[in-house]
């Protein structure tokens, strides 16, 4: 794991080893995570019982676990975690086809946090991969898709499924 706290918002020293070894080490990941999670917490409709900050944090943790399992220990972890952070921001504006809005949030916000154009393009593409009908074509796409549905194999499956059912 690359986090210090239970909710997955504070990176640990191992995370910073990866982040500072990157070409772009100026990304202020803690501030970015706090900004986006607060944005979601304050602005998502309360009727969204599944697509919530908790879901976002779960997906962020799942991309990390799956990524490590796939032996990804480089910039791709930062890219995956950031894509997971933004993957449902489009729900702030609309429920269906929200991925394009989530990608626009990433494109507008990430330059302020030191991300390069190439990183932002990759993150935006990964956000589109969370559409249900999307067929992943590479490892990072498969990881974020699996992470977005990670609850399917967990002990809390019934509770989380009920949240999604209630949200519908």
Characteristic terms for this protein:
single chain; 168 residues; mainly alpha; 8 helices; 57% helix
Count of runs of 4 or more consecutive helical residues: 8
Our measurement of the CA-to-CA distance between the termini, rounded to an integer number of angstroms, reads 32 Å
> Which structural class should the secondary elements be placed in?
mainly alpha
Rg, alpha carbons: 15 Å
Query: Main β-sheet: number of strands, strand sense, barrel status?
Result: none
| Poorly predicted regions | 22-26
Mean pLDDT equals 87
Structure description:
It is globular, with a radius of gyration of 15 Å. The N and C termini lie far apart (32 Å). Helix 4 (75-86) packs across helix 7 (139-148). Helix content is 57%, strand content 0%. The longest helix has 17 residues, at 53-69. The protein has helices at 13-20, 29-43, 53-69, 75-86, 99-109, 117-128, 139-148, 157-167. The chain is an all-alpha fold and 168 residues long.
What is the fold's blueprint, element by element?
Layout: H1 13-20, H2 29-43, H3 53-69, H4 75-86, H5 99-109, H6 117-128, H7 139-148, H8 157-167
Helix pairs in contact: 3-4, 3-7, 4-6, 4-7, 5-6
Short description:
By secondary structure, the protein is mainly α.
